[in-house]
What we know:
By secondary structure, this protein is an alpha/beta fold. It contains twelve helices and eight strands.
Amino acid sequence: MxxxxxxxxxxxxRLILALDFVSGDPAVFADRLLAALEPLVVGVKVxxxxxxxxxxxxxxxxxxxxxxxxxxxxxxxLADIPDVVREELALLSEAGFDGSIxxxxxxxxxxxxxGVRGHDVFGLVxxxxxxxxxxxxxFEDLLxxxxxxxxxxxxxxxxxxxxxxxxxxxxxxxxxxxxxxxGAQGAEPGSALRHGATFEIVGRSITASEDYYGAAERVVxxxxxxxxx
Length: 229
Ligand code: C5P
């Protein structure tokens, strides 16, 4: 399993790239981005839209081809009964992913998650879009639950920086916080880090840019100003 913090240290970056939307052939598109962005991007978060376009075999090939340079995170927002989540995590780990994002609202996941070895689990404690009232209303509950699970960290939105700060203040120190919502959804690069996030997840403002390298570079430069590198 790749070392997420070690890669971050080496690249002096806190950028995780969200790969959901592609233009043209998905394999060619992903290949082009990943071949170019390795010096700047620490992790690649593979979303369901990409997996559905590429097929799971294509995703596994991508993970295998670029596995030496990136941490691979599966974002299929797993939300099922514990036995099924356990099996999903085992298969994603087998496919080469270093970590997965799971919903915490199904609860009762203690046993399913405690058996996971060599694969990081990140629990969603809030969502980045404005209408996510139900989840956000249970933010404190989800945070408490996440902190008891002994997982690698949580996903909390950069678009709601107050929640990132509360997550940082509440969670055990070794929990990582991954923050989506930077760029296309409005949060400024570096802003979630300032509120206590460990990584920022950025998708469309890089993937949809003609100059994706320049777009990623601007994110990382802003982050370096915050982390002092
Ligand atoms: O393109 P954009 O930068 O908005 O991508 C954000 C990514 O983060 C998407 O892959 C989305 O699924 C994900 N995400 C999010 N809010 C959450 C959890 C994940 O936006 N709470």
